[in-house]
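Hi R.,

As promised on Friday, here is the backbone we talked about, encoded as structure tokens. Could you run it through your design pipeline when you get a chance and send me back a sequence?
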């Protein structure tokens, strides 16, 4: 009888630990995406961007990487579209610019 109680106690403990680990990993996924967006233009220098698709609890957004961190912006804002075009144009220009050559004369 005591062996049965110890097994049940052990099983309950392991189930509790598993539940906590599962909930913790689920929260990490939520924290790694935008659940809200801003329509306010960004004033910090923008380093890059990525597109986030809607997959609940995440919302559709353009995530700008700034010198101060990431900012979730509403994808339908005109300024967001303009900034993405500007960043893409700069990226393409950097790709096609030949590397400077050095002469040894």
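Update: got your reply. Pasting your designed sequence below so it's all in one thread:
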């Amino acid at each position: 009888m005591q062996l049965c109680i110890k097994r049940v106690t052990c099983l309950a403990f392991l189930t509790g630990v598993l539940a906590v680990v599962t909930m913790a990993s689920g929260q990490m996924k939520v924290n790694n995406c935008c659940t809200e967006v801003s329509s306010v233009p960004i004033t910090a220098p923008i380093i890059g961007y990525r597109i986030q698709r809607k997959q609940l609890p995440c919302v559709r957004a353009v995530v700008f990487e700034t010198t101060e961190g990431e900012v979730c912006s509403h994808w339908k804002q005109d300024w967001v579209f303009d900034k993405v075009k500007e960043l893409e144009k700069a990226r393409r220009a950097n790709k096609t610019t030949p590397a400077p050559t050095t002469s040894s004369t």
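One thing I noticed while checking it: The longest strand covers residues 46-52.

Thanks again,
M.
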